[in-house]
Design goal:
single chain, mainly alpha, 3 helices
Length: 105
């Protein structure tokens, strides 16, 4: 079970690092570009990968929460899983807005 925990933390932290890098470094560089087609291409390529990554993290968190339901940290894992479950649709909504450039989806 220790390997599952390590895999869960690894998956979630790599995704967090990727999201942070995009928000802090990539987006400001894209906003300076004159060609919006390049920005759209990057967003589309990230959009193809991120939903699977989100799903994998949710699956790992859910499995970890299920296996640790009797442990002291089981409720924290369940809370993390539920927060992550809410985060996925919000992230997809923001991604759709960035692709379409509209305020409403």
């Amino acid at each position: 079970m220790r390997a599952l925990g390590i895999l869960t933390v690894l998956c979630a932290s790599l995704m967090t690092g990727s999201e942070l890098a995009v928000s802090v470094f990539v987006n400001p560089a894209i906003w300076k570009l004159d060609d919006r087609a390049q920005a759209g291409e990057l967003a589309r390529s990230m959009g193809k990968v991120m939903p699977f990554w989100y799903g994998a993290a949710l699956l790992l968190l859910g499995t970890e929460a299920y296996q640790g339901r009797g442990d002291a940290g089981g409720r924290l894992l369940l809370a993390a899983t539920l927060i992550w479950l809410v985060t996925i649709p919000l992230a997809c909504l923001c991604w759709c807005r960035s692709i379409t450039g509209s305020r409403r989806v």
